[in-house]
Amino acid sequence: xxxxxxxxxxxxxxxxxxxxxxxxxxxxxxxxxxxxxxxxxxxxxxxxxxxxxxxxxxxxxxxxxxxxxxxxxxxxxxxxxxxxxxxxxxxxxxxxxxxxxxxxxxxxxxxxxxxxxxxxxxxxxxxxxxxxxxxxxxxxxxxxxxxxxxxxxxxxxxxxxxxxxxxxxxxxxxxxxxxxxxxxxxxxxxxxxxxxxxxxxxxxxxxxxxxxxxxxxxxxxxxxxxxxxxxxxxxxx
Length: 237
What we know:
Elements: H1 4-38, H2 42-45, H3 59-68, H4 88-118, H5 121-132, H6 137-143, H7 149-188, H8 196-233
């Protein structure tokens, strides 16, 4: 027999899935676009320069989404040897960190939209949900009973998108940041190239294990400050 809790859980999963598909597609396509403009057409040749979600869904990431309420998209490869010319280091930074920037921007935009639509009260509802990961539509419905079901659904999708993009921005900063520093280091010290797998895999795993929660808190608080500032400046609060 279907209970309210079962219905709430199904709605939560479907909402997370919708937020996941949109987030990884936009971030993946943006990374591919930036990388191509920096001089490396590898993502375009592999078909990642598209918003088609089927090109950006990672099966393991999708599995984690259903089990742990967060998931990631396919890794967009970059060939740094194709990026050259003036300001090469800056171009590499733009390419490698573009997905983290995309996730950060989507989360900030989502929070700005919520603040503009519901006012400062939405923070008191959203913050506990985001920090606990307990995403349920009923929390929003109880906090804003005057809002229509359609508005609550849109708000819930936005909350789920913020939740996912904060996590993905954090993971992208760690993984892509380490890869960027490793590429710059190995180009200057090629004798350490044989240790690249330890650098590309082991170091990000250790950083995620020990520092991801701290960095995630910093990322989220920064998003809250920027979103609130924009809403205040535009006199939407």
